[in-house]
Amino acid sequence: MIYTCTLNPSIDYVARVEDFKEGHLNRTSDTFVYPGGKGINVSRVLKHLGIDSTALGYTGGFTGAFIKDFLTEEQILHDFINVSEVTRINVKLKSHKETEINGLGPSISIENQQNLLQKIDNMSEGDFLLLAGSIPPSISDDFYAEIAKKCNGQGIHAVIDTAGEALRKTLSFQPFLIKPNHHELGELFQTDVNSKEDAIFYGKKLLEAGVQNVIVSMAGDGAIFLNKDTVLISNVPVGTVKNSVGAGDSVVAGFLSQIIQERDLSTAFQYGVAAGSATAFSEDLCTLEQVEFLRKQIVIEEVTR
Ligand SMILES: Nc1ncnc2c1ncn2[C@@H]1O[C@H](COP(=O)(O)OP(=O)(O)O)[C@@H](O)[C@H]1O
Ligand SMILES: O=P(O)(O)OC[C@H]1O[C@](O)(COP(=O)(O)O)[C@@H](O)[C@@H]1O
Fold first, then answer.
1. CATH fold of 2-302, please?
2. pLDDT tens for residues 41-68?
3. Closest ligand 2 atom to 247 CA
4. Residue among 6, 10, 89 whose CB has most ligand 2 atoms within 8 A, to mutate
5. How does 278-293 read in b/e, with b if 16+ C-beta sit within 10 Å?
6. Which residues does the UniProt record annotate as the domain Carbohydrate kinase PfkB (predicted)?
7. pLDDT in tens, 181-197
């Protein structure tokens, strides 16, 4: 089974404003409302690709209810812990540029943190647990590391998609996969990652730190996959970016959708990049048809070391 855990889900309110002017009254030309948060996006893309998962995390209030109803409607299993404060709303403003305002999120009690850890006790060896997105301010940035340690002890494949200290602290617990984008990778090493060579250099440092598989996504500039046996480079297909929210999550979902079916790493990587681009080229998250179509344009090359 694949579990996704979103500690800080959101409603993503996507507002298109033709000529946004700061400090003025602006009116939208189009709006969309989606359930958001990285683990939830991964569960949704997995479902689109025909793979079941169970979404975990914390939800509260009318916004939390919207997320649960949406997932139920899409026949996605979920087992969220209810909290008293409302789930946040993240604003995604589309104008000349993409601007995002992500909320802080509700506070999570120690008791509810323990409740989540107990759910992990009931998972089985060989399961996958995705830990994705920011950690709400009420939870220590050690929390993902604590979960990664539990996963390591229980033979659960931890997949981590977060940034900064919360990510760094998980590395020594041998997560199965991490997927930083090139900015997040640079941030980990207090540098800028500007090229594929840089991404390979710093990606190898993540392997040395204990991570089993690394994908570095570089938006429109391709992606890199690394593990102890191989380094793969991918192009990305050409297209018009409509809404890149959830594109990184789609890379993770596309990759996992193939790994769970025991496909080889190169196929899984290709599928991940196809899913990322298919989402970037869509208003909402990608569909299976879009992924299958874009996949044919993606060439995976092995780097000889
Ligand atoms: N301009 C683009 N052209 C094609 N694909 C893109 C583009 N921008 C993003 N993508 C797709 O989305 C994926 C994730 O994007 P990226 O910005 O690297 O990650 P994140 O969304 O985590 O910040 C990329 O690997 C790629 O598949
Ligand atoms: O938890 P964070 O870091 O605030 O991110 C939450 C946001 O990330 C998203 O999951 C999108 O993530 P990506 O664009 O990185 O794939 C949105 O749905 C959500 O608003």
1. UDP-N-acetylmuramoyl-L-alanine:D-glutamate ligase (3.40.1190)
2. 999 999 999 999 999 999 999 999 999 9
3. 16
4. 10
5. bbbbbebbbbeebbee
6. 11-283
7. 999 999 999 999 999 99
